[in-house]
Specification:
Blueprint: H1 25-35, H2 40-67, H3 73-79, H4 84-92, H5 109-121
Amino acid sequence: MRVRSLCGTMEGMSNHEDDARPTTLDDVRRALDEAEGRDSVGALPYLRQAADRLTELIDEAMATAVLTGQASLRGAGAQAGLTENAVGPRLARTRTLGAYADDRGRVTAAGVERAKYDLETGQPRQPAAPPAPMRFKPRRPS
């Protein structure tokens, strides 16, 4: 990143969570291009946006891999550098498997099997609302 002025603006930055279309690599590239040339403070929102969109792509790729039988939950997580316990909540935020999450907000092997059956019968469930990106939540106010 090249250093520019200390007042980087956020013009042209969209709130992708409200978009109806799926995230693409071009979305990640656009966010990185916006970060390019800004100072470190001005680049942060664009880098965060790129990271969020890349996370969406990883999660959707894992969902597709488990739904098509190319990988198990554990295998998909391993390929993405995640533990098996991290996969279920991430799949619950996807467009592909979000409707199959349980009450704990996780997609389990049973949910994947149901999604496969629904896909084969041509009646996949649709998620109620787009999932919100995961954010850090402090354990206590300080």
